[in-house]
Design brief:
This protein is mainly β and 108 residues long. It has strands spanning 48-54, 57-64, 81-85. The chain has a three-stranded antiparallel beta sheet with strand order 1-2-3, with no helix packed on it. The radius of gyration is 28 Å and the shape is elongated. The N and C termini lie far apart (60 Å).
Length: 108
């Protein structure tokens, strides 16, 4: 049987640091150098739409390159758009599937 009263619980020693914590910043300090840097402010964000029509339905996806033949999305992109149905009165359910194809630009 376990007994958890105060007398049986070991007490941890009090910790006090004799050294102050260093200050952290994204700026390099003297003698430091950056190994890699990926600036995000100049990222190109497409503003066109991709439209795929099939008989009485259409899928419209936002934030696509002008004239794209297939929709593309970058890392951590949000898929945004809508499905347009010509005859909505007889529709009971709409299912969408998202599949992926990785196009790697890494050299081997």
């Amino acid at each position: 049987m376990l007994d958890f009263n105060e007398s049986s619980t070991p007490q941890l020693p009090i910790y006090t640091s004799s050294v102050s914590l260093p200050s952290y910043t994204h700026e390099l300090a003297s003698g430091e150098r950056r190994l890699q840097h990926s600036p995000r402010s100049n990222v190109h964000r497409p503003t066109s739409v991709f439209i795929k029509k099939s008989r009485k339905a259409a899928v419209v996806l936002n934030n696509q390159e002008e004239g794209a033949r297939i929709p593309t999305f970058g890392r951590a992109s949000v898929i945004s758009g809508f499905i347009s149905l010509e005859d909505r009165h007889n529709i009971l359910e709409v299912k969408t599937y998202v599949s992926h194809l990785f196009d790697s630009l890494l050299e081997h």
